[in-house]
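call fold(seq) -> tokens
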Amino acid sequence: LTTSLLIGCATSPTGRSQLLMMSNSEMQQMGEQSFNNLKKEMPIEHDAKINAYVRCVATAITNEVGGDWEVVVFKEPSANAFALPGRKIGVHTGLLNVAQNQDQLAAVLGHEVAHVLANHSNERVSQKTMVNQGLSISQAIINPQSELGQAGMGLLGVGAEYGIIMPFSRAHESEADIYGLDLMAKAGFNPEESVTLWVNMGKAGGEAPPEFMSTHPAHAARITDLQEQMPKALKLRSEAQAQGKYPQCN
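ret:
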């Protein structure tokens, strides 16, 4: 991998200016290699029913954005999920105890896919590169267990699995919430269940929230923001249903 010499300026889905130094192909390579590393490091769930359910929800979401996405369910107790550049989605089995139906799972996956579509990982890598030119992304991915490798993985949004947490910024989270809510609604899922999801997250965590929440804003603030976006999302869902989109993943 070689970092692009030209600095690219872009605009996020909410109109925010972005600094993007990595090309799409570089980010895709990083995502694919990182996902391959995760599949070697983490146990994979092979239960056919669980996989069919998760892939049904994921496919409904990704059909709205195009491309062939690889979906892997990891046998991990934490309530977590992630999406990576290169069209990769990972779901922990622990999330299925908190996301209690297809709509709630769609809320999580829509959010994570939104991070990828909004180039949030590229932004994080670019910002880190600007701050510390000593970070070699290629070396980080080649040796994921090293300190440098853990930093590189964290920039993609999967650092928690390696013992470090490098959360997306509040701006990134807010954008992923808005964009993700629209995605799940366009796929025909009930966007109102996104609010129930975060209520469940809060109940599941108590004083120690689930891992998924530990890198995200407080659920109360998130619920308020989601409710503000709900009228638009419900309209999108009505339009989706008019097109015959009725996900049946239960």
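Strands lie at 8-11, 17-20, 70-74, 81-84, 88-92.
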